[in-house]
Specification:
The complex is a heterodimer of chains A (112) and B (114). Chain A is mainly β and 112 residues long. Chain A contains no helices and 11 strands. Classes of the chains: A mainly beta (112), B mainly beta (114).
Amino acid sequence: EAQVTQNPRYLITVTGKKLTVTCSQNMNHEYMSWYRQDPGLGLRQIYYSMNVEVTDKGDVPEGYKVSRKEKRNFPLILESPSPNQTSLYFCASSSRDRGPYTFGSGTRLTVV
Amino acid sequence: QKEVEQNSGPLSVPEGAIASLNCTYSDRGSQSFFWYRQYSGKSPELIMSIYSNGDKEDGRFTAQLNKASQYVSLLIRDSQPSDSATYLCAVNTIGSSNTGKLIFGQGTTLQVKP
């Protein structure tokens, strides 16, 4: 089944403890993206990647890092999480930069 | 600032009626337009794509695009309670590295009352 897989689905962590949210797609897509979704603010892009080793900042990149060492994987790294990074996170992928994107199931992150 | 705007709603329609959802965008260079449906706590699900002016129909859904007016809409005919969800308009634009990126509106919440 073609899909984007994120892990974990739920995560509660403490301020400052480094964490990684994994994302993997099995559709051989070049384009991958991370979004966060907050009430009243909608979906906002954090980072995106056009191919292996090619990434660029989205609209809200502060406090996040990404890497794209393999085509199928695009992990999101929070080096020192803070409470304002509490959010619902989605990974998405596409075969074209014009979209459309297929979304993962989401990761609900709480930073206390 | 490149933006996509939607009325947040809620838009309430009776079962069987036509629901009309609207979206405007600011980037005249946009080429791809999408409607996603999102149930509470779930991931966005693509329901319609449209790339050229005019109407595109798929079952009970019709997407309409008017690039001159920078306007895209979604019509849902014979609305069902299961259509109750948030509908996200997404528009492709050009990012800082000259590649496409998808910008989302805040979404319109649709309530279909039995």
